[in-house]
Specification:
single chain, alpha/beta, five-stranded mixed beta sheet
Length: 330
């Protein structure tokens, strides 16, 4: 059975086809290069590019999978959360395709799909129940997942997402967008505690706005004192990254410990961060947790995780199409 997934929540126009959990095709066109000059995503640009490429990536996926549209059993599309116009393009395209083919349509939660991403292209048993972390440019949430049909939000950021904090700090230092990639390249473990930066965390909730502001103020202060050079820049950014990723790990460790759950699943673009993955491996060894991480190819937004979750939900609940489903932006 083949499932087709469509992802257009932000700047990636993506279409994928999975058979079970095996990804047989996954095509993504990103409009990122158009947003770089603005230091962030411009919704109008993203939406226009989705309109331009949604049919093309779908055809490419079908050809790559060597099947016909009639062979698709279920169609899933991200309907929340994300940019309003961007979501509308993907959901309406999926609904039209569903009506034309007479195939079921499922609306997929983008965050839940990220938690499905570690299970693509493998046969690992689903480790229910588990603590789920989604960390990206727009989201930082912790979930309790008893099943992909039973997901409870435990905590979230109260202001900036961790990825958003990376972007804003990188912009202040004249680095590129998305900022997390550049800061991760600059990061040096030798300087991870050069400066004392702290992220906010209360219970299972996070706050990254304060640490972002503290880093930018420290940069301004050192520039006025003419103490800012390349070495100092590396020390500041390394200390900043260390603070952010340690806070994420501490948050999921606390959630898992308090709820007595040994399995942890992580997804989202920030999970590609090398230091975060290193700390998660250390946590796994130290506390005997079992931690599941997606391959780097599935950390960023992609339709494969949408198709995979659609396949799962269809087989689990046999859901029928809901053509009245409306998109839900941030």
């Amino acid at each position: 059975m083949h499932a087709l997934g469509i992802e257009t929540s932000c700047d990636e126009t993506s279409c994928a086809i999975v058979k079970g959990r095996k990804v047989v095709a996954n095509f993504t066109v990103s409009s990122l290069r158009y947003h770089k000059r603005y230091g962030g995503i411009v919704p109008e640009i993203a939406t226009r590019n989705h309109l331009k490429f949604i049919d093309k990536v779908s055809l490419l996926a079908i050809r790559k999978a060597k099947i016909d549209f009639k062979d698709i059993k279920v169609i899933g599309a991200t309907y929340k959360p994300g940019l309003l116009g961007a979501l509308l393009v993907g959901v309406n395209f999926a609904k039209a395709l569903s009506l034309a083919l007479g195939k079921p349509f499922l609306g997929i939660n983008h965050l839940h799909a990220h938690l499905f991403s570690p299970f693509l292209d493998n046969r690992i048993p689903f480790p229910f129940p588990f603590i789920g972390l989604v960390a990206s440019g727009g989201h930082t949430e912790i979930f309790l997942v008893k099943d992909f049909t039973q997901i409870k939000l435990l905590g979230r950021t109260t202001d900036d997402a961790c990825g958003e904090a990376f972007d804003k700090v990188a912009r202040a230092f004249g680095l590129g967008y998305p900022g997390g990639v550049y800061i991760d390249k600059i990061y040096s473990p030798d300087f991870k505690e050069s400066f004392s930066f702290r992220c906010g965390r209360k219970g299972f909730n996070f706050s990254f706005s304060g640490v972002k502001t503290a880093v930018i103020y420290k940069k301004s202060e050192l520039e006025k004192e003419k103490k800012m050079d390349r070495g100092t820049k590396i020390k500041i950014l390394s200390s900043f990254q260390e603070s952010v990723v340690k806070t994420l790990v501490e948050g999921i460790e606390e959630a898992a410990t308090k709820l007595g759950i040994r399995n942890i699943v992580c997804g989202g673009g920030v999970v590609a961060n090398r230091r975060l993955r290193e700390l998660l491996k250390d946590l796994e060894k130290k506390k005997k947790f079992k931690i599941f991480l997606p391959s780097l190819a599935y950390t960023t937004d992609n339709a494969a995780m949408v198709a995979g979750l659609a396949f799962y939900l269809y087989n689990k609940r046999g859901k029928v199409s809901n053509f009245n489903l409306e998109v839900e932006a941030n």
